[in-house]
Amino acid sequence: MALHSINHRFHARPATLRWLILSLACGFVACDRPPSAPPVTPKPAAVAAPEAAPAPATLADVDARATPSPAASTPAPSSGTAPSGSSSAPALNTPLAQVLAKADPAGDPSWTTEQFSEDAGAQLNKLLLPCWASTGAEIPPDLLAPDFKTTDLMPDLVPTFKDAAFAISRPASLSSDLTFTGEAGLQAALAPARRAFSDATHPFRGKIKVVRVEPSQDGRPWSTVVYFEASRGPRQHNAEWQCTWHAGQDGAKPLLASITLLRFEEVLATPPAAGPAAPLFADCTEAVLGQNSAWSSQLIRGANHWHGNLDVAFGIHQGNQGVSLADANGDGLTDVYLCQPDGLPNRFFLQQADGTLRDFSQESGLDILDISRSALFIDLDNDGDADCVLAHRFSVSILQNDGSARFSLVRTIATESRVSGLSAADYDHDGDLDFYVCGYSPMSQTSPEDIFANPVPYEDANNGAFNYLYRNESNLEFTDATTASGLDQNNTRFSFCSAWEDFDNDGDQDLYVANDFGRNNLYQNNLIPSGKATFTDVAARLGVEDIAASMSVDWADADNDGSMDLYVANMWSSAGNRIAFQQQFKPGSNEETRHLIQRHARGNSFFKNLSGQSFQDASETSGLTMGRWAWGSNFIDLNNDGWEDIYVANGFMSAPDTGDL
Known about the structure:
The chain is α+β, with helices and mostly antiparallel strands. It contains 15 helices and 31 strands. Strand 7 and strand 8 form a beta hairpin.
C-alpha cells in the first residue's frame, strides 16, 4: 500500500453516512435482532514492503465491485406486489422510516412512559432559568399539583474536599420528610440555591435529564428519577431527585406532586488569596495554533462542515480520529499529531520554545491523506527517537523517524479488520517494543460505507473483527504473533482500545482490551514465571468483563495502595436507563438478556485492584458511572496533589437546528 500525502494523487471510495443513535438502540432498535452471524475465523495478516503492496483501488475498481449484476439488481416479486396491469399500488416497504418513527414518543402507544418522560422533562425545565436562577421569580402556573410537597432541595452542607482549585461540599444527611408544601413551600426550598446563584454577572447554565420512569399503578402516582445540574460562575450544583406526578387530563401536562432529594453536591472553584476565583483551565487553542494557515482552513471547521463540503466518497463519518503526543525531534518539547479522516491531511505540529505549535506536516512526511484511525509514536528500532505506527481503515503503516521529525514509510501491514486502536509494550522481554492492533469490524462483513457491522447479539456480540499482536523482530521487521501468544482467545469482538499494564505485579506486561457491544478481555501474561510469553484471558474470573459499550481504558493506582486500578469508558444513556427497565422492553426475552442491555446504559466502570488476585467493581460507590456518551478517558493528577483524577471526553456529533426540513 502506498500512503498518499497532500502532494500526491489519491483515490477515494464511495461512502454514505449510516448512523443510528445508540441510545435508541438500547431500547428500540435492539429489540429487532438480526439473524445470527457466525464468528469470523482469523486469517494471518500479510506483511509487505511498500513496493510489493498492491496498488490502491481506483474509483472505477470500487464501482465495478459494488455494482450488482442485472439479475441480482432485479427484485423478485412478492406476494404483496400487485400483478402486472393491476391498478392497485404495491405497499411501500420503508424500513428506515419505521425505525425513525420509533424516535417519536407519541408514535407508539405501547410506550406511554417515553411520552410521559418528555412531558415531565418539559415541566421540570420551567424550574430552571425562571425559578432556579432568579430570586424573585414566581412559580409558573400549571406546574404544581394542589397537594405538592418537597424535601429540602439544598440542605446544610459540610466540606468533603478542598484544595487550591476546588472545594466540594455534600449534605451530612438527607431527610425524606416532605416538609415544604404548596407554591410557598417550593419557594422556600429553592431559596438557598437561589442565593447561591445570585451573581448575575455570570451566565446561568442548567440541565435536567429524566433517567427513570415508573408508570402509575395500584393507586400510586407516576414517578421519575431526575438528574439535575446547574452552574453559574465558580459554583456548580449536581443533584438527583425522585419526583411524583399526577397525570394530566385531556392532553394537559402532568402536575408535579412531590420532589424528594436523593443526592446533592456543590462544587466551588476556590478563589486565590487575592482576587476572584479563576477557572482551572483556560482555552489556549487559538493562541497555540492560530498562526498556522491550517488553523483557519481546516482545524476550526467541524465534521458538519466537511460533510457538506467534501464529496461523500471521502466518508467523513465521525470526528474521532484522535491526537498523539511525542517529542519527535528530540528537543525536549512535546509535539502534536492529529489524525484525520479520508481526504483531509493529517497535521503534525512541532512545539516551539514559546509554547506555540508550528505546522511541520509536509516537511515531516506525515501529511497523510488516507484515513487515519490512530497513531502511536514509539522507538521501534532502538535508535533513540520516536517512530510512528499509523492505523488506517484495513492496514497499519510503519514510518521511521530520522531523528529530526522527518519520517519515511518502511512498510504497510494489511489486516482483515477495520483498525480502531494501537498500543505497545515489550511483552516478551526481548528488548524491543511490540505493538497490538485493535480491530472493530471485519473486512468480510464491512462495506466501504459502513461505520460498523451489525453486532450479533447487540448486548454480547461475538461477530466482530479480530485483533493482532505484532512481535518486533528488529530492523523494523514484524511477525504476526497473535495465535502463538494465545491472544486469539475470545478475539472476535468489536474492539476499540487496549492498554498494557502489570496488574498482578509479577514483572511482565498484561493487556486489557475494551470492546463495544459486549465483554472485554484481560489477558494475563504468563512470561513470569513460566518463561513463555503467552496469554490467558482472565477477565471473567477476575470480574472485569464489564459487559457494555466500552470505548477506552486506562490504568492507574487510584488509591495509592501499590496495585494498578482500571477505568473503562462506556456509554451512560438516559434513554437506555428509562427504556431498558420497563416491563414492555424486549418481551419474551430472559432476564439475563434484559440485565445485559440494562448494564449497557449504566455508564463508565471503575475496578479496584485487590492485590492482583481479583477486582472490585467500585463504579457506583465511587460516583464514576456518569461519563455521558464517553470516548477517551485518562487518569491524570490535575491538581498535583498526588492522587489520580479522571478526565473523560464525551459527546457525539451535533449540528445547529436551522429549522430547515
